[in-house]
Write a structure and sequence with these properties.
The complex is a heterodimer of chains A (399) and B (240).
Chain A: H1 2-15, H2 17-54, E1 58-64, E2 77-78, H3 79-88, E3 92-107, E4 110-119, H4 122-126, E5 131-134, H5 139-144, E6 148-151, H6 153-160, E7 169-172, E8 175-183, E9 198-202, H7 203-211, E10 215-216, E11 218-223, H8 229-243, E12 254-258, H9 259-302, H10 304-312, H11 317-354, H12 362-388, H13 392-397
Parallel strand pairs in A: 4-9, 6-8
Antiparallel strand pairs in A: 1-11, 1-12, 2-10, 3-4, 3-7, 3-11, 5-8, 6-9, 7-8
Helix pairs in contact in A: 1-11, 2-9, 2-11, 2-12, 3-8, 9-11, 9-12, 11-12
Chain B: E1 13-22, E2 29-39, E3 44-48, H1 55-62, E4 70-75, E5 78-79, H2 85-95, E6 96-99, H3 111-121, H4 126-139, H5 155-167, E7 173-177, H6 185-202, E8 205-209, H7 213-216, E9 221-226, E10 229-235
Parallel strand pairs in B: 3-8, 3-9, 6-7, 7-8
Antiparallel strand pairs in B: 1-2, 1-4, 4-5, 9-10
Classes of the chains: A alpha+beta (399), B alpha/beta (240).
The complex binds adenosine-5'-diphosphate and magnesium ion.
Chain lengths: 399, 240
């Protein structure tokens, strides 16, 4: 009986291909939207999580000013601040002062706009950077402010193509700078910034040749594993208030952020966004279900005579009900399948455009499919029951 | 209800004191006012009478599509008016065949699939359905037209497909309400010839409503209705 009902339902769908397609369209779009949203959202979450793990040890970032954003007249840090923190606050892995500057780097006929970070060897440790070739700075280079640099993968690619740059030089402003190492690629940050688009030089080199100042923009402090970052933050704040001569009762004119916390907050945000977008998409799936019900109801009216014929020649009410129900379920499931196929294509393409990883999620695909089949049952039942309860005499008389 | 050859002695159909009232109270209308007749196996009955005399009403009751308001309808000794809706549907499925004035084939469906449909509801295998449908189409003279759909067939051909669909289950009774009503005289005659042959050669009992005296001549018996009652019930001395 089930098999026969399926056969009859498939025949009815085939007899009206165009309408069948339009019926499923709502489900196709609904399922497609849900899966695309969730897949992209999961990709974005994954990107943030990857960045958290690439940040390695617990990293604190210190900037002048009270909050994120422009420092608003607060004095920059001094080079000595890094050493003071390193020696006077316990439980630290490394403290790296940084001074940054946007520049155009040139090698032969190629040039590339990027930013230079002046810092110490501690930067590589605190930022969890590794080298693919070459070396980091030696002490003499840091002390003398030699024109040497370690470049990121993007800079290497843009200036050297497939070549190995170690030992070669690039020109920045008026000076030539020897490439001594290449950083291993980290990819995009959660904010969408290309972390490999960077050049790292000794702090003194940048201060002398690029910024012309003695101060530093920011301090990166990495905390040893197992040491409470909260406690370290408090100690650093106390020390810095002393060094910056801030009176009691006055606000800090610098801020210390726990980057891991920020990234975790960001993961939370993308999760919430994913859920929200998924929910919006789920509403469109519901609308798709109502579309199916609407068209099935129209179809029952349109096919009243057909139903009358079926009842007259021996169909039981239950069989007519089953046929219409199966029609709805088959249509909805087909819509679900089409939605999965188009969502896989769309989210793969969008993931590429938005530069988030594409993660095929079997769970959400299976769930959407089952959900669309369920929609077929729920929204198909009412029209099917109406069809089955038709009076055959009336139905046969129907024009 | 067991097999098609049940209960010796009982006639195929027996109506006694059947009435049918449509509506209630002031609006009530008595379409049948006490109808009595007996139809034996292998009869070919033409039902005639003016419009509104209750012919279709009695056909619907005989076809188990409707129930009488009072009176008894015995089908091979079974009190049909006491059956449940589902039981009447099963009786239709196993013992009755319908031919309508408007043919009523499924649109965009081949002749073959139309004819197979009643067998599908009877749960017969795909090969049995196929065989039986081909045989039925051949019996109505439509071999070679299996794949044509309703839109590709003439009125007469559509009615032949409908007859094939009605006889494919080897029904005990074929009910036809004005089967030639939508056809020209020539096509109508051909359909009547076909019914006559089916009655004579396959022994199918036929009950047919018609307006036209010429068509009634093919039957072995004519029941005439007036105002919801049987006015006359005569055997044709010789069928055409
Ligand atoms: N469903 C119905 N409701 C009310 N009156 C009906 C209904 N069906 C038929 N009638 C009335 O019953 C009478 C007999 O109808 P019918 O059996 O169709 O006549 P006919 O002999 O022309 O086939 C007619 O007067 C018709 O108007
Ligand atoms: Mg009538």
């Amino acid at each position: 009986m089930l098999w026969n009902a399926l056969l009859l339902a498939l025949r009815a769908i085939r007899r009206n291909l165009m309408r069948s397609f339009l019926t499923t369209l709502g489900i196709v779009i609904g399922v497609g939207a849900v899966i695309t949203m969730v897949t992209l959202g999961n990709g974005a979450t994954k990107a943030v999580q990857d960045e958290i793990s690439s940040m390695g040890s617990n990293l604190l970032m210190m900037r002048p000013g009270q909050r994120m954003g422009p420092p608003e007249g607060a004095p920059n840090f001094k080079s000595g601040d890094a050493e003071a923190i390193q020696t006077q606050v316990g439980g630290l892995e490394a403290v790296a002062p940084t001074a940054a500057k946007s520049v155009t780097a040139v090698h032969m006929a190629r040039n590339w706009s990027t930013s230079v970070t002046g810092t110490t060897n501690a930067y590589f440790k605190s930022g969890n950077w590794r080298l693919t070739s070459g070396r980091t700075f030696i002490e003499a280079e840091e002390r003398a402010g030699k024109a040497v640099c370690v470049i990121g993968e993007t800079v290497r690619r843009e200036l050297f193509g497939s070549g190995n740059p170690v030992g070669d030089s690039i020109r920045i402003k008026q000076f030539s700078c020897e490439v001594i190492g290449v950083l291993a690629s980290k990819g995009q940050s959660a904010m969408g910034r290309d972390q490999d688009d960077t050049i790292v030089m000794p702090l003194r080199t940048v201060q002398r040749r690029l910024t012309g100042r003695q101060d530093v923009d920011a301090l990166l402090v990495s905390v040893k594993d197992g040491v409470s970052t909260g406690m370290v933050m408090e100690r650093i704040k106390t020390l810095m208030r002393e060094r910056r001569k801030i009176a009691d009762g006055e606000d800090d004119n610098f801020n210390v952020m726990d980057t891991k916390q920020i990234a975790e907050a960001l993961t939370g945000t993308t999760r919430i966004l994913t859920t929200l977008l998924g929910a919006v998409a789920a509403v469109s799936l519901l609308v798709g279900g109502i579309g199916i019900m609407n068209i099935m109801l129209v179809s029952v009216t349109e096919r009243t005579r057909e139903i009358g014929i079926r009842l007259a020649i021996g169909a039981l009410e239950g069989e007519v009900l089953l046929q219409f129900l199966i029609e709805a379920v088959v249509l909805a499931s087909l819509g679900g399948l089409l939605g999965i196929v188009s969502a896989t294509g769309a989210s793969a393409a969008l993931a590429k455009i938005l530069k988030v990883p594409f993660l095929f999620n079997p769970g959400i695909n299976a769930l959407s499919f089952l959900f669309s089949a369920g929609i077929g049952v729920i929204f198909g039942y009412f029209p099917a029951r109406r069809a089955a309860h038709l009076d055959p005499i009336e139905a046969l008389r129907h024009e | 209800m067991t097999t098609a050859s049940a209960s010796f002695g009982d006639p195929l159909i027996e109506l006694s004191g059947v009435t049918k009232t449509y509506g209630r109270g002031q609006a009530a209308f008595q379409a049948l006012r006490g109808v009595n007749f007996v139809i034996g196996e292998e009869d070919f009955v033409a039902v005639m009478g003016p419009s509104g005399s209750g012919k279709s009403t009695v056909m619907n009751i005989l076809g188990c599509l409707d129930t009488p308001t009072s009176g008894a309808y015995l089908f091979r000794g079974v009190r049909v008016e006491r059956l449940l809706r589902k039981e009447r549907a099963l009786l239709r499925r196993h013992y009755l065949g319908f031919v309508f004035q408007g043919f009523n084939l499924l649109a965009r469906t081949s002749a073959q699939e139309n004819v197979e449909l009643p067998l599908l509801y009877r749960g017969e295998s795909s090969s049995a359905r196929h065989e039986a449908a081909r045989a039925a189409l051949s019996a109505v003279g439509l071999s070679g037209w299996e794949t044509h759909t309703q839109a590709e067939l003439s009125g007469g051909q559509q009615q032949r497909v409908a007859i094939a669909r009605a006889i494919v289950t080897r029904p005990a009774l074929l009910l036809a309400d004005e089967p030639t009503g939508n056809l020209d005289t020539q096509c109508g005659r051909e359909i009547m010839e076909l019914l006559s042959v089916l009655n004579r050669e396959k022994g199918i009992t036929i009950l047919m409503v018609t307006h036209e005296a010429e068509m009634a001549e093919y039957a072995t018996r004519v029941i005439r209705f007036v105002d919801g009652r049987v006015e006359s019930d005569v055997r044709n001395r010789e069928r055409r």
